[in-house]
Specification:
Length: 692
């Protein structure tokens, strides 16, 4: 859109004005005319284009000044220029006023112009290259044809001696520490991932133009602002800009914009020199902040001492802060994390053997760091952020704050490895705030609506029950990212209350397809009844486990326990409630779901805990699955539960490894997935190509 500005003439005097290329400058010849004037004529420099606009009709003016026009209130001049001036006030428009019958002018008014080129530019077309004056740089749209720049939150830590992430500090020591890109201004430079402001005059005869004199001297102000009325007080807490270092003063970058610095004044120095800046994001999208932020450059004109500067031009660029994105089980693993405990040596060994089958690394959190907290899945969730020019992993720290609370900040945060957390101020933190209760589906299509990055799944209380629920600040944060629309499930029926206790996803190797695995008590009873009919009713569970096997728990005993049957009928109803939600919200059919046998036992609060190791609570590493060893009934010296699960999953091309977690995790109400965590490769799909 062409920007417009009005300049008022004064007969008998000279008016100096700064003209910004790409704008329309309007002037009213009628109000500036002497009382006795009846007509006017025009002269102008060759660089200047002047149109006389009367009643909406425009007529271009020749440079010779011979033609006359009648003065009327509806007559104005529209002035444009296509090139920057070579010197200050070197281009002009002269208006001569005449009496009705006069041949000589009775007075004149002069407009002396200094044309400069100012623009603030960004990578608005998202190709990793900053282009000049993209007409859509001041807006942001989603989709493969969308436009608008992307900004990363500078949430990693490039300086190891700092206690927190880079955005918490006012010092930056390298441009790699900024999450740019950022914007560049018009002028002579190449396509840099920086913000370049060039308030330049043109180059004429090989010499730089001087500073515009007197009243045409100008100042530019850079300022950020949120594009939402919900955050008053400007955008200083959303983005910041940094000046590159002066070699004389070392390599430190200086924040000149952001936080408490709501604007930065740039003095015009003449010539065509450019000023470089880097830009970083300070906040993720969240409740009340949809992630859009603008940066403005405003040109202010000096008039006289004690008179405020006058705004004459503003250019704006818009950024969207890149969202935090979760990664589902179908993506390839990069690192597996597990805690080393006094009682999990054998578990650790089995996990190590499993990881060695895959092309990823094992990262052990030792006891001096975990301080006895084995639930690494509950402490953090691994994700990432991405822009066209860069991306890096970001860990979301849960508000549970067990003994692992310092682990993500001290062990994970570093160069190109970011950190974010959300802590409730007033809400109590419950078990549902642990991140075993935070999962994400593979990409799905629901009633024609595509979710190319999947949908976040969190456990909650039954509607209207008043039970436990994930804290609002975390739910708001997840919702505000916009790219993985969250779905709330019912998990409060479980003692621990996590969604990973009753569902997970596995890839189908060699395809883009997947299956959802769900815990099923009805599938368990069906299997046990089949084995009973086959004559294996006295098959023993928990064989070889000391105290547990001494109780001699058999298929017959489980099937004959009426209370256990009734409890698991209730638990199956809870599972089916979630099944229906998942089918609806993920667009799944029954053929997309595989039921894994499970049994639960009601505790003193009438909530469910696993009767035997819960096989759905597994770790997924490509085609290799680390499944909790269920110690089910032995049929011909083989666990019938393991045999059944293999028959369901191995035909898909998956490899089942049953991991003994019963003493180190199951007896503490967790399983393999609870005791491990996985960082995965990001999606190849670019989030800005989707439409939320």
């Amino acid at each position: 859109m062409q920007r417009e500005r009005t300049v008022r003439l004064q007969y008998g005097s000279r008016v100096e004005a700064v003209y910004v290329l790409g704008t329309h400058l309007w002037t009213d010849v009628y109000s500036a005319a002497p009382a006795e004037a009846h007509t006017f004529s025009l002269k102008h420099s060759e660089r200047v284009r002047v149109e006389v606009v009367r009643d909406g009709q425009a007529e271009e003016v020749a440079t010779n000044g011979k033609q006359r026009w009648l003065l009327s209130p509806s007559t104005t001049l529209r002035v444009t220029m296509s090139q920057a001036s070579t010197e200050a006030s070197s281009d002009k428009v002269t208006v001569n006023y005449y009496e009705e019958e006069g041949s000589m002018p009775i007075d004149q008014a002069g407009l002396f112009l200094t044309a400069i080129e100012i623009s603030l530019d960004v990578d608005a077309d998202r190709d990793g290259v900053v282009e000049k004056n993209n007409p859509r740089k001041a807006s942001w749209t989603w989709g493969p044809e969308g436009q608008g720049a992307i900004l990363l939150v500078n949430c990693d830590r490039d300086t190891p001696w700092l206690p927190k992430e880079d955005l918490s500090d006012n010092k930056v020591y390298s441009k790699e520490g900024t999450s740019g890109p950022c914007a560049r201004g018009g002028g002579q430079g190449g396509a840099m991932q920086t913000l370049v402001f060039s308030p330049g005059l043109g180059q004429g005869g090989g010499r730089s133009a001087p500073q515009p004199p007197g009243r045409t001297s100008c100042t530019a102000i850079l300022s950020p602002a949120p594009l939402t009325p919900a955050l008053p007080g400007g955008g200083g807490d959303l983005t910041s800009a940094l000046l590159p270092p002066d070699p004389f003063f070392g390599q430190r970058y200086v924040h000149i914009l952001g936080r408490q610095k709501l604007y930065h004044v740039v003095k015009y120095t003449g010539g065509s020199a450019e000023l470089l800046f880097f830009v970083e994001g300070l906040r993720f999208p969240d409740e009340g902040f949809p992630g859009l932020v603008s940066i403005h450059v405003s040109l202010l004109e000096y008039m006289a001492e004690e008179i405020p500067l006058t705004p004459i031009f503003t250019d704006t660029v818009v950024f969207r802060i890149a969202p935090w994105i979760m990664t589902p089980n179908i993506l390839p693993p990069l690192s597996v994390f597990v805690c080393c405990m006094k009682d999990n040596y054998l578990f650790l060994k089995e996990v190590k053997n499993l990881v060695e089958k895959t092309n990823c690394e094992l990262k052990v959190c030792f006891q001096y760091v975990n301080r006895g907290d084995r639930w690494i899945q509950d402490e953090v969730e691994f994700g990432y952020i991405e822009a066209p020019h860069k991306g890096f992993p970001v860990v979301l720290d849960s508000p549970r704050d067990g003994y692992l609370k310092d682990y993500p900040m001290k062990q994970l945060l570093g160069p190109d490895f970011g950190y974010v957390t959300r802590e409730p101020l007033y809400e109590p933190v419950t078990s549902l705030d642990s991140f075993g209760n935070l999962e994400v589906s593979p990409p799905v299509t629901v009633n024609g609506k595509t979710y190319p990055l999947g949908r976040i799944l969190i456990g909650s209380s039954f509607p209207l029950s008043g039970g436990r629920r994930m804290t609002k600040v975390v739910r708001d944060f997840l919702q505000a990212q916009q790219v993985q629309a969250p779905v709330e499930l019912y998990s409060d029926w479980l003692t621990v209350g996590h969604v990973d206790e009753f569902m997970t996803f596995v890839p189908i190797p060699g395809t883009k397809q997947f299956r959802m695995l769900m815990a099923s008590t009805s599938a368990c009873y069906k299997l046990f009844r089949e084995k009973q009919r086959e004559g294996h009713g006295e098959a023993i569970m928990f064989k070889g486990l000391g105290g547990m096997s001494s109780k001699r728990i058999t298929i017959n005993k489980i099937l004959s326990s009426e209370s256990l049957v009734q409890e698991n009928q209730y638990f199956q109803r809870c599972l089916d409630w979630n099944r229906d939600i998942l089918k609806k919200e993920l667009g799944l059919t029954e053929k997309d779901i595989i039921d894994l046998p499970a049994l639960f036992k009601m505790d003193e609060r009438r909530q469910a805990r696993a009767y035997f190791p819960n096989m759905v609570n597994m770790i997924v590493l490509d085609k290799d699955l680390g499944i909790p060893k269920p110690f089910g009934p032995q049929v011909e010296d083989v666990c019938c539960l393991e045999t059944h699960v293999r028959s369901l999953l191995e035909p898909l091309g998956l490899c089942c490894t049953f991991v003994d977690d019963i003493s180190a995790y199951h007896k503490f109400l967790g399983e393999v997935h609870c005791g491990t965590n996985v960082r995965r490769k990001p999606f190849t799909f670019k989030w800005w190509h989707m439409v939320p």
